[in-house]
Amino acid sequence: MAQIKLMSTELSPGCGVKAQIVRSRDGGFISRDCLGCGRSHYVNESQLPNLPCEVCRVPMQIKKLDGTNYFYECSNCNGYNKIATLCHCGTKSSVTPD
Questions:
Q1: CA-to-CA distance for 43 and 31, rounded, in angstroms?
Q2: Which of 51, 60, 75, 85 matches a 20 to 30 Å C-alpha distance to 4?
Q3: How far apart are CA 78 and CA 87, in angstroms?
Q4: Buried b (16+ CB within 10 A) or exposed e, 61-79
């Protein structure tokens, strides 16, 4: 799966505007960056958007397959994607409003 723009399901806690899910550090860490001020916030499973499987088109589940990092996993075909590999790197220049 190619890199895609992932938006948090919740607004940024600081500014109350949309937040983009980005790769924040090496090793698969992700955060949600405020589109207003660029401030980074921790992300949890409930703040990640639902995505369909590219192969099956069924909704994928969000899991920590390695115990640390979030993955999208298809329960139908067993395909998976590490969310950090789908996101853009978290810098002010890569966080883009709609």
A1: 5
A2: 75
A3: 21
A4: ebeeeeeebbbbbbeeeee
Distances (CA, A) of 41 to 52, 63, 83: 25, 20, 16
Report d(CA 60, CA 70) in Å as an integer: 12
The yes-or-no verdict on residue 89 having pLDDT over 80 is no
pLDDT digits (tens, 9 = 90+) for 23-59: 988 888 999 999 999 999 999 999 999 999 999 999 9
Q: DSSP alpha helices (H): ranges in the chain?
A: 83-86
Is the pTM of the predicted complex or chain greater than 0.85?
no
> What order do you get walking across the sheet with 19-25 strand by strand?
6-7, 19-25, 29-34, 40-41
Residue 92 pLDDT > 90: no
